C-alpha cells in the first residue's frame, strides 16, 4: 500500500548524503556498480537462505532485528519469515544480508535499500533502539520510506534522471526503457519516475499478474499527487484499473483516461497506462499537461 511521503527537509538531507557518496565515485552513470558503492561505505554482502540451519546458527549470535536481540537460530528463522524480510543490515559487522531466493534484478533494490540504512546515521537508533520509541509502526514506516528514497537515488541518481525524464510523459514504456538502460527492475524504475515527477503521478504494483486475482502491494506517488489527490486510496485506483484494463496474463493491458477529483472537488483527466509482466500488474497514472 501507499507508504508515507518523506518530508521535504529529510528528502533533501538524504539526497545530499547520496550525492556525496556517488561524488566519491565520480558521479557514474547507470548501471551503478553497487560493489563500488559498498566499497566506499566499507560494507560487504552475503546471501542467506532460511533453509540453511548452519548459516542461520552462525548469524543468530547476538543479532538484532528491528532493535530486538536474536540469539537462537529458530527465532531468527521465525523473525525473518514473520517480517517477510528479503534483506537486512548487520551494522556491527558492516554486512548486508540478502535472501538468495530473490530474483537477481530485485537484489539490486534490496542492496541499495540496506546501503541507505547504513548511510543515514539517524537510522542507527532504529537498528538498536527500544521498542517503545523507534519501533512504533509510524516510525518504522518512515524509516523504510527513507531507505526506499535513498535506494532510488542510488540506482537512479538525480544528476542522471533529470535529463532522462525531461520533457517525457511518465508512460510504462518510459519505465521499461529506464529499467533496461539502468540495469534495474521495471518496478523500481516506475517507482522512481513517480517519485521524481513534477506533476500528479502515481505508480501502482499489484500481485499476482492477473486482474481477477490481484491486490495492491505498493503505491508510489509524487509530491503533487499527495498534495492534491492524497485522499484517493490505492483500492480506489485498482477498482478503476479492473474496470477499464484488458484482462490478460501478460503484456500491455491498455491505456485509458479517467477523471479524478482533487481535494477541492475539481476534476482532472488522468492517463492510466497498465502493463503485466506475468507476475505483477504495473500501472502508471498521471495528469495530462
**CATH architectural type of the largest domain:** Orthogonal Bundle
Number of domain units? 2
Strand content: 15-25%
Structural class: alpha+beta
Order of helices and strands: HHEHEEHEEHHHHHHEEHHEEE
Characterize the biggest β-sheet. 5 strands, antiparallel
Plain-language structure description:
The chain is an alpha+beta fold. The chain folds into two domains: 148 residues, Orthogonal Bundle (Arc Repressor Mutant, subunit A), CATH 1.10.10; 120 residues, Beta-Lactamase, CATH 3.30.450. It contains twelve helices and ten strands. The radius of gyration is 19 Å and the shape is globular. About 2% of the residues have low confidence.
Write a brief caption for the model.
The protein has 289 residues and is an alpha+beta fold. It is built from twelve helices and ten strands.
Q: What structural keywords apply?
A:
289 residues, alpha+beta, Arc Repressor Mutant, subunit A, Beta-Lactamase, 2 domains, five-stranded antiparallel sheet, three-stranded mixed sheet, globular
Amino acid at each position: 500500500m501507499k507508504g508515507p511521503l518523506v518530508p521535504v527537509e529529510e528528502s533533501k538531507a538524504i539526497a545530499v548524503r547520496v550525492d556525496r557518496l556517488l561524488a566519491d565515485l565520480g558521479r557514474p552513470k547507470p548501471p551503478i556498480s553497487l560493489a563500488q558503492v559498498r566499497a566506499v561505505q566499507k560494507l560487504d554482502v552475503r546471501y542467506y537462505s532460511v533453509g540453511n540451519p548452519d548459516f542461520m546458527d552462525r548469524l543468530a549470535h547476538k543479532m538484532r532485528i528491528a532493535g530486538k536481540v536474536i540469539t537462537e537460530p529458530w527465532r531468527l528463522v521465525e523473525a525473518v519469515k514473520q517480517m517477510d524480510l528479503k534483506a537486512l543490515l548487520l551494522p556491527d559487522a558492516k554486512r548486508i544480508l540478502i535472501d538468495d531466493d530473490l530474483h537477481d534484478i530485485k537484489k539490486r533494490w534490496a542492496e541499495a535499500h540496506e546501503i541507505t540504512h547504513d548511510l543515514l546515521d539517524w537510522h542507527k537508533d532504529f537498528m538498536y533502539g527500544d521498542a517503545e520509541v523507534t519501533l512504533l509502526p509510524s516510525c518504522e514506516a518512515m524509516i523504510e520510506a527513507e531507505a526506499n528514497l535513498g535506494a532510488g537515488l542510488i540506482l537512479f541518481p538525480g544528476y542522471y534522471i533529470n535529463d532522462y525524464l525531461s520533457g517525457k510523459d511518465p508512460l510504462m514504456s518510459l519505465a521499461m526503457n529506464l529499467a533496461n538502460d539502468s540495469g534495474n527492475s521495471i518496478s523500481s524504475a516506475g517507482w522512481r519516475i513517480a517519485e521524481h515527477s513534477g506533476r500528479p503521478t502515481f505508480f501502482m504494483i499489484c500481485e499476482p499478474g492477473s486482474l481477477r486475482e490481484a491486490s495492491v502491494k505498493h503505491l508510489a506517488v509524487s509530491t503533487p499527487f499527495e498534495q492534491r489527490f492524497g485522499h484517493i486510496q490505492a483500492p480506489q485506483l485498482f477498482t478503476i484499473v479492473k474496470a477499464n484494463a484488458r484482462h490478460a496474463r501478460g503484456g500491455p493491458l491498455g491505456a485509458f483516461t479517467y477523471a479524478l477529483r482533487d481535494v477541492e472537488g475539481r476534476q482532472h483527466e488522468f492517463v492510466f497506462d497498465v502493463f503485466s509482466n506475468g507476475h505483477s500488474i504495473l500501472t502508471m497514472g498521471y495528469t495530462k499537461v
